[in-house]
Inverse folding.
């Protein structure tokens, strides 16, 4: 009897241990049934090691092949783009499996971020692909996969299927100049395991937080997101406010005064109010504003900004919740759509809440490529295409896309729409109604803009300007 009791106790202990060791999987794979999935879905189990400054990534991607009959697939895994360690590859792959079978892979672009897998079976259109993965990578000391003194920012770190257009996968490298990430809307279930002292900012909604001895696990879900990201830091100061029914949270590396905290909430309130009233609803009931080391970067339901608070940057990144997160585009090859448009709309924020002088002589004093301060840069840019891969702009990227791009929109509204910004907002609302949760090209946007405004020269004028950098006063013919 005692022997039997010992057996029961040992078995029970093993069951408990097994249950605990698998606890990280309970949330992300709970009630998983591939037949229920109707959208690309990511199930991510993440473990942060703050001593070695690395992240374990394991999980599953269920990808719905809506492009073509495939006999190979290319996964993008961006942490391999930079290596500040001693190994040749920054990403250490334990396995990649397609439909339950392990596969080898080949690197097929110059920065080793594109992983090509030759399949043993054909993947038909609308067929689901079950992709399992496990790997580890070291954090960079720069850019968007960043660590500095136990402060972590983690973006674009998980595998996604490369864009497939005109019969081939897009193998563009990761760019440190602008944005590379081009992905369809998806659902994310994520477990983030960190030392329990850390506070975490993240995309999506926190479902549960579980303490596991000296660590804790955050279970997070994001429905219909463009991407998923998170940050972690032990000493965040956290502030909350309800804005238009949205739970807006600030995570700041430094403690904020009442004045600074209220400023940030006002910037968020006014931006959300403008975009919802003039473009379309913000579809989530949560938004996080992280104030730390990243100057300005957008991600679904979270934005990253410098803790040296900039109204323009915060407004710009919140607008990206519409122009990037909801309405996607190829950021690396058509950055004119998301960045130039967002820069111009940021100017409209100043007109909305301050006055026309703040719009014309304030914001656009900095965002006017025709200003004498930019004379040499303007001359150097003449003739280049504004529809180019972002790295090809080199140091001129910010001037060409953010400043001159915004200048083009202002010239168009002032001269072709008689400064009727409401008519331009109406076009943005039509864009929102037609392309939310989808991706749009520059040509599709310009055709829509022409149709909505009724200005027949719209598409032709913009394409002339974009194909060859020139004075905005030039017109076709």
């Amino acid at each position: 009897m005692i022997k039997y009791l010992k057996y029961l106790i040992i078995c029970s202990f093993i069951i408990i241990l097994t249950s605990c060791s698998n606890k990280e999987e309970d949330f992300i794979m709970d009630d998983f049934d591939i037949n229920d999935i109707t959208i690309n879905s990511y199930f991510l189990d993440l473990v942060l090691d703050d001593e070695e400054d690395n992240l374990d990534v394991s999980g599953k991607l269920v990808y719905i092949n809506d492009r073509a009959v495939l006999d190979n697939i290319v996964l993008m895994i961006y942490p391999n783009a930079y290596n500040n360690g001693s190994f040749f590859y920054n990403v250490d792959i334990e396995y990649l499996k397609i439909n339950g079978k392990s596969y080898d892979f080949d690197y097929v672009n110059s920065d080793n971020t594109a992983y090509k897998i030759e399949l043993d079976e054909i993947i038909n259109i609308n067929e689901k692909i079950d992709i399992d993965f496990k790997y580890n990578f070291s954090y960079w000391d720069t850019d968007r996969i960043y660590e500095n003194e136990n402060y972590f920012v983690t973006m674009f770190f998980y595998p996604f299927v490369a864009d497939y257009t005109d019969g081939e996968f897009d193998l563009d490298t990761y760019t440190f100049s602008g944005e590379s990430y081009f992905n369809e809307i998806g659902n994310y279930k994520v477990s983030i395991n960190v030392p329990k002292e850390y506070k975490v900012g993240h995309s999506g909604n926190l479902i549960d937080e579980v303490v596991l001895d000296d660590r804790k696990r955050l279970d997070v879900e994001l429905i219909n997101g463009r991407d998923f990201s998170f940050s972690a830091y032990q000493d965040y100061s956290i502030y909350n406010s309800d804005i238009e029914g949205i739970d807006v949270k600030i995570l700041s590396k430094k403690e904020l005064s009442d004045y600074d905290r209220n400023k940030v909430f006002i910037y968020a309130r006014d931006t959300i109010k403008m975009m919802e009233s003039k473009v379309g609803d913000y579809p989530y009931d949560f938004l996080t504003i992280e104030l730390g080391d990243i100057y300005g970067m957008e991600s679904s339901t979270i934005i990253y900004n410098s803790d040296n608070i900039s109204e323009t940057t915060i407004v710009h990144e919140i607008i990206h919740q519409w122009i990037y997160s909801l309405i996607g585009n190829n950021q690396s090859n058509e950055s004119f759509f998301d960045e130039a448009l967002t820069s111009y709309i940021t100017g409209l924020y100043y007109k909305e809440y301050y006055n026309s002088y703040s719009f014309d002589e304030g914001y656009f004093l900095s965002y006017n490529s025709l200003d004498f301060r930019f004379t040499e840069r303007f001359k150097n840019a003449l003739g280049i295409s504004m529809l180019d891969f972002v790295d090809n702009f080199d140091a001129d990227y910010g001037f060409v896309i953010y400043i001159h791009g915004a200048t083009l929109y202002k010239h168009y509204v002032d001269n072709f729409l008689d400064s009727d910004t409401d008519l331009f907002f109406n076009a943005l609302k039509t864009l929102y109604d037609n392309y939310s949760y989808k991706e749009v090209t520059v040509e599709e946007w310009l055709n829509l803009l022409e149709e909505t405004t009724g200005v027949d020269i719209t598409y032709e004028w913009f394409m002339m300007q974009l194909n060859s950098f020139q004075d905005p006063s030039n017109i076709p013919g």
